[in-house]
Amino acid sequence: MTVPEQRLQEALTTLKKSGVRITPQRHAVLEYLMQSMKHPTADEIYKALEDKFPNMSVATVYNNLRVFLDIGLVRELTYGDSSSRFDCNTSDHYHIICDECGKIVDFHYPSLNEVEQLAEQVTGFDVSNHRLEVYGTCEDCQQMAKH
Amino acid sequence: MTVPEQRLQEALTTLKKSGVRITPQRHAVLEYLMQSMKHPTADEIYKALEDKFPNMSVATVYNNLRVFLDIGLVRELTYGDSSSRFDCNTSDHYHIICDECGKIVDFHYPSLNEVEQLAEQVTGFDVSNHRLEVYGTCEDCQQMAKH
DNA sequence: AAACTAAATTATAAGCATTCTAATGTAAGA
DNA sequence: TCTTACATTAGAATGCTTATAATTTAGTTT
């Protein structure tokens, strides 16, 4: 069994445990998210599945993404651009984003615990988590710029 | 001259240098941003100025924010919630955001250069900058939760 | 100081992502 | 198989932001 397939099985188990029904559409949205190495928008998921489910509503995609978010199966990524992206890799990692083409690449780095600790001391907040995004130009766009 | 006043003067000089006209509305938007310790949304700016400029259009606020963004006088902050916030403090700093009330507080911490460097090596990106946001519950909301 | 012109403002319409609503359909247990 | 609470659907509605076209104006030129 491949890694995405295994994650899908685990996710389905989590859904069942949470008392959430497994419908064909829900299954398909989850499967697409798990297999995608990108971080798709709701519309990208919708378009990717319209062959399989010609009658599926965009609302269904949004509804299911919300369900997955609530259970903690996916994370929502919001950047400057208009629409949210969804990341099914919930393990600790950061993102590096191309200023030119918007590509998002996962980037592993040890968690910045000392920043969280200092933030608590200085601001009095009860810190829950943090987000780090690095911006730059990806190799593809660097090549493009040379020609 | 107070610090916000001084920053306003500097900003006006920058605008002139960039060949941007100083209109009363533009001046007012900039002044409000500079004096505000919060990170207002476009609508908050619009509402704050409607006494002074009863005929001002929301479009004017958006237009001017874009001008300021292009020149680098302000930064746009986009989080999960619907509308962008604007930060006229362009010095290096991070933000800590309350999960409950959405309050955004400036938080100073040395720039994470080593993260940028590692990201370049690992991903091949030409890194330009990065963003760090810490999330948690502010003191006010911690108090509220107790009662 | 008056005239000029490119840029800014205004009011309104339009666009887009997302959410809501109400009717219909269905997964999963009894 | 029957039942029912939950999901899906289509389409309307919402809210933020941008576009359009007409009017006004800042800042320069005469």
UniProtKB/TrEMBL annotation, chains A, B:
Cofactor: Zn(2+); Mn(2+); Fe(2+)
Entry keyword set: Cytoplasm, DNA-binding, Iron, Manganese, Metal-binding, Repressor, Transcription, Transcription regulation, Zinc
GO terms assigned for molecular function: DNA-binding transcription factor activity; transcription cis-regulatory region binding; zinc ion binding
Binding site for Fe cation: 130
One of the protein's GO biological processes: regulation of secondary metabolite biosynthetic process
Gene3D superfamilies: 3.30.1490.190, Winged helix-like DNA-binding domain superfamily/Winged helix DNA-binding domain
Free-text remark on how the cofactor is bound: Binds 1 zinc ion per subunit. Binds 1 Mn(2+) or Fe(2+) ion per subunit.
Signal peptide from the UniProt entry: none
Superkingdom, taxonomy of origin: Bacteria
One GO cellular component term noted in the UniProt record for this chain: cytoplasm
Entry's family note: Belongs to the Fur family.
Functional description taken from the UniProt entry: Manganese-dependent repressor that controls a regulon of oxidative stress resistance and iron-storage proteins. May act as a hydrogen peroxide and organic hydroperoxide sensor.
Protein name per the record: Peroxide-responsive transcriptional repressor PerR
Protein species of origin: Allobacillus saliphilus
Lineage of the organism: Bacteria, Bacillati, Bacillota, Bacilli, Bacillales
